Amino acid sequence: MSNPTNRMPLIDALKAIAAMLVLLNHFSSYGPLAATAREALPGLMGWLFEYGRMAVQIFLVIAGFLAARTLSANGQALGVSPLPLIWKRYLRLAVPYLAALGLAIAAAAVADHWMDDEAIPARATFKQWLAHAVLMHGLLGFDALSAGVWYIAIDFQLFGLMAVLLWLGRVKLVAPALVLAVAAASLFWFNRDASWDNWAIYFFGSYGLGAAAWWASERRQMSSWLGVIATVAIAALVIDFRLRIALALAVALTLGFSRRTGLLEQWPDARPLAFLGQISYSVFLVHFPVLLLANGLYSKLELSSPASAIFGLLAALTASIGAATLFYRWIESPAASRRITAALGWLFGKGLDAARKVPGLAPLLTLLARRA
Prior knowledge:
By secondary structure, the protein is mainly alpha-helical. It has 16 helices and no strands.
């Protein structure tokens, strides 16, 4: 997260809205609470189930927009090795993500005692947890331990792919052109084939639209550049219309114009949206464990009326925001993340010192340290 004084209110607002829509999509999809509430509010619950998931496109475009700002603010190639940047991104995602996985596993164990429902993930195995820890559970065919964790793996892949493309470019203008070419390939080909949906290339069209919006807003003739971007995306939609890509294009154009006009840093001036935007990643991470516990408690109390289900969902929504607030403060925030990373580094160092005292291991560890 950036310093609060450097935040962009429009991006915070979009992230807040997207996080709430993803949360409500899951609330309309899993467990007896969703099934019972659907009886009372079939239209609303059906819409959230069908379209709420598309809010992920907002996150994808924003992520590409901010990645361009971080890696290639002026359209330049990446002059240093991308590996340290990719590792830094992994730590940024993984520290809160792994903590949230622990919450999800614990919540699933509790809910499993209270109800029998397909929404509860099966008991985690070590291999499954390890695949999640390295953000490869989708690629390796493991079932997800929490709803929405596929996106975190994809976000990491997308950042890594973009960093490598910018590094391969090595010459100004060539690097962003390479990114945009891969984005176009995604829009016209890969995104039309769902078999690629565990790979970054499937989503890189939306991510690339976000990056293109950042670079276009730097140009003097911004309208012309954004027009070119819109033309390419619309051509892809003419070939195969996908509402998710149309939404991604709308968000990208909004970001590009708002940055050039100054609205990005000024509007909307709404503290609730700014706060929800700041904790949006925490909301994304912790809402499913809360939902599992809410569904389990609903079943344990043997409630069945639509009114009680709606109340349960509202209570779960409130609890999710409260839990996310605490989670952000103690785990996700930059200060907390630094403390956790430092503590893990200290523990690793102590473990390494202890391992060096084991006969026969010391020479091997010294050799590995020198090579590192």
